[in-house]
Amino acid sequence: MTVKLYHYEHCPFCVRVRMALGLLKVPWKSLMVPYDEEDFLIKLTGKKMLPIMDFGDLVTNESLEIIERLDIDNLLGMELLKDTAQCQKIDTLLDKIGKDLHSLCMPYWIYTKEFNSTSRNYFQKKKEKKRGPFRDLIKNKDKYLKGLEVTLKEVEDHLDPYFISDFSIFDIMLASHLWGMYIFPEFQFSKKLHNYLQDVKEKCNFEYHEDLWNLKK
Ligand SMILES: N[C@@H](CCC(=O)N[C@@H](CS)C(=O)NCC(=O)O)C(=O)O
Q1: Are 51 and 17 in contact (CB under 8 A)?
Q2: Residue in 7, 8, 13, 81 to alter for ligand 1 test, most ligand atoms within 8 A of Cβ
Q3: Model confidence, pTM
Q4: Which ranges in the chain are annotated with CATH 3.40.30.10?
C-alpha cells in the first residue's frame, strides 16, 4: 500500500517527512490539508496536528516517529536521536531558528497558494495569539532578521559539511526548518548555507511548492 501523508505545505515538521520520503525513495500520496480543517484531523489522530502519516496499519502524527518507521535500512542514523547531547544541540538551534524565522515568515506564508481567505484568517488569528499582530511582525522585521543572522552564523559554524560530518536526520531537521526562509522578501542565505540547503534538496528530491503547482484553479 502507498503511504498517505496529510500535511501543510509550509510546515517544517511536514517538510521533514517529505524530505525523508524523497531521500528514501518511498512512493507516497500527498494530501494537503486546508489549515482550518479540524474535525477530520481530530477524527484521525485525536488532535489537530500535522504531519499525519497513514501507513495502512497505523496512523501517526509525530514527524520523527514517522521517519523512523520509513527508514527501514537506517540511512538517516536515527539512533542519533538517542544521543542526548547532540539532540540538545539541535533542539536548541531549532528553537532559536523558529523564534525569529517563524515571526518573519508567517505573515508571508499565508499569501502562498496553500491558503484561501478562510484558512488565512484562521491561521493569522491563531498565530497572532502567540506572536502578536502580523503587521507588527513585519514592522519589526529588522529585529528578527538580526536575531536570525546570529543563529545562522552558529548553524554555519556547525556544518562540516553536514551537522555531524555525515548526512543524517539532523540535516533533515535543520534544512526543513530553514527552508521556509526562501520565501521571505529580499532575504538571501549565505553561499555556504544556500549550497548546503540545495545539497539537501537534491539528496531528498525535495520541491517545496510542488503541490501548489499542481493545484487546480
Ligand atoms: N512534534 C510534532 C510537531 C508538529 C507540529 O507542531 N505541527 C504544527 C504545524 S507546523 C501543527 O500541526 N500545529 C497545529 C496547528 O498549527 O493548528 C512533529 O514533530 O510532528
Answers
A1: yes
A2: 13
A3: 0.96
A4: 3-75+209-213
Around ligand 1, the residues with Cβ closer than 6 Å are 8, 11, 13, 48-51, 62-64
- Could you identify the atom of ligand 1 that is nearest to the CA of residue 61? 20
What the block records as the C-alpha cell of 199 is 545539497
Q: Looking at ligand 1, which atom is closest to the CA of residue 62? A: 20
Cα separation, 142 vs 150, whole angstroms = 13
CATH fold of 78-203: Glutathione S-transferase Yfyf (Class Pi); Chain A, domain 2 (1.20.1050)
Helix axes 84-109, 169-179, angle to 10 degrees: 20
Q: pLDDT by residue for the chain (217 residues), tens digit each?
A: 899 999 999 999 999 999 999 999 999 999 999 999 999 999 999 999 999 999 999 999 999 999 999 999 999 999 999 999 999 999 999 999 999 999 999 999 999 999 999 999 999 999 999 999 999 999 999 999 999 999 999 999 999 999 998 999 999 999 999 999 999 999 999 999 999 999 999 999 999 999 988 876 5
